[in-house]
Write a structure and sequence with these properties.
16-stranded mixed β-sheet, alpha+beta, 32% strand
Length: 429
């Protein structure tokens, strides 16, 4: 396989790999280093691969091995991670317990077949030889076993119980247009958690979907629901459950990014919205981080002085000026968020009067995002752009080279390239 082919496959799988690692490693710096190490390994040793369909399983084997090395508990991680491959990423039930419970409910031959094919580092051909059956027969039995597993998997039942519905989004991003208006931006109260889109208030729930460009194909969905009141370190807020689903291939159990669950505690005041704690399952252990834990929490989830959070009453400060595809930042702050104009966003045949909340490097280093918010404070459209050299050490290629057809915006003269968009459930209902 050529270096160019490897780069293309790595690009197609990069977001899934990044999520796979970051939902298992809470420390952002460690996770970034691990992803970079995996990418370098892929580009250095991938030349021996012959078939593109072998790339993803090989990539995840590398990722699992790196996680094993990091945790220094190979047997435990192999067990947990390979169970994830069968049941999907379902943090919090807990993962390996939920999968084990489901396997126990299956008939013996189904359970043995799934464990052999997904909990052992052997190919399907080797599994067929071990069982003494033709490869075609194994594939037929495996398809039936996977179907019966999915029908029994507890996480699906939990989703149905809480009312979190799946598959409500279209396969491809609806066509849309963004037209800048001459009118002054309006002030708006936007109480959602920046980057997550849910308002931390009892009975709130929402869902959104991400679409990668230029294909505009659905790549992930996120379902969020406020589940009740919560208190952390004497501060009262609400608990939020989130469920992320990957949409690479519904029949590919090796794609270990299919479902992920985590919890937040968040607080909404009259002026700010902030996260106070985050929890997820890592290597079979429930990890909890709060605003008092310093860098492990604040680097990933905190914002503002003393984690004061994001302002909910939005108005333009003049720090960011957007004019078509040119953005000018007038503030000396490194990370900045500001309303930068008023826009008509037409999507799904309906036009929304919005303001654009632009985020420069608050969401992530070398990342610029646009959130188009209507007068009621609802998100109409969320867009992500990467600075041209974002991930250069990992990938070894500029984004203008990687996606030459994608939209570009210059921020103080630096090129940023469009990557993906998110739309919300209320838009497609």
């Amino acid at each position: 396989m050529t270096h160019t082919e490897l780069e293309q496959l790595l690009t197609e799988n990069y977001r899934a790999l990044e999520r796979y690692i970051k939902f298992r490693i809470s420390d952002k710096a460690i996770a970034d280093d691990l992803v970079q190490d995996i990418c370098l390994t892929v580009l250095t040793h991938g030349g021996s691969l012959r078939q593109p369909e072998s790339f993803r399983p090989w990539l995840y084997r590398i990722a699992r091995n790196r996680l094993n090395d990091l945790w220094r508990s190979p047997s435990r991680e192999i067990q947990t991670d390979k169970m994830d491959c069968i049941g999907g990423r379902a943090h919090g039930l807990t993962r390996h317990e939920a999968v084990s419970e489901t396997l126990a409910r299956l008939r013996d031959d189904d359970r043995r077949l799934l464990m052999l094919c997904y909990m052992s580092d052997i190919t399907q051909k080797e599994a067929a030889e071990r069982l003494g059956i033709p490869l075609g027969t194994l594939k037929t039995r495996l398809t039936a076993a996977k179907k019966r597993f999915r029908e029994q998997y507890p996480y699906t039942k939990e989703m149905e119980r809480t009312g979190m519905k799946k598959n409500i989004f279209p396969e491809f991003m609806p066509e849309y247009t963004i037209t800048q208006r001459d009118d002054e931006p309006f002030d708006v109260v936007h109480e959602a958690i920046i980057g997550w889109g849910i308002v931390p208030r009892l009975s709130e729930k929402c869902a959104w979907a991400a679409y990668d460009f230029p294909e505009k194909k659905l790549t992930e969905t996120m379902y969020l629901e406020v589940t009740g009141r919560a208190e952390i370190h004497g501060i009262e807020g609400v608990e939020i459950k989130t469920v992320e689903s990957g949409w690479d291939s519904s029949d590919n159990l090796v794609f270990a990014d299919s479902e992920t669950e985590r919890w937040f505690i968040a607080q909404l005041t009259d002026t700010h919205c902030r996260l106070l704690a985050e929890s997820h399952i890592e290597n079979g252990v429930k990890k909890c981080y709060t605003f008092l834990d310093g860098a492990p929490f604040l680097d990933n989830w905190g914002y503002g002085e003393d984690n004061c959070g994001f302002e909910t009453h939005l108005r333009p400060h003049g720090w960011i000026v957007k004019n078509s595809d040119t953005v000018t930042v007038t503030s000396d702050k490194k990370n900045i968020i500001d309303v930068c104009g008023r826009f008509d966003v037409t999507i799904g045949g309906k036009t929304y009067d919005t303001v654009c909340l632009m985020d420069i490097e608050t969401y992530d280093t070398k990342v610029m995002t646009e959130t188009y918010i209507d007068r009621e404070g609802r998100i109409v459209l969320w867009r992500r752009f990467n600075r041209n050299d974002w991930g250069m050490k990992r990938i070894g290629q500029l984004w203008t080279e990687r996606f030459p057809q994608n939209e570009r915006i210059t921020v103080n003269g630096e090129v940023c390239v469009h990557w993906y968009d998110c739309i919300y459930d209320w838009i497609v209902k």
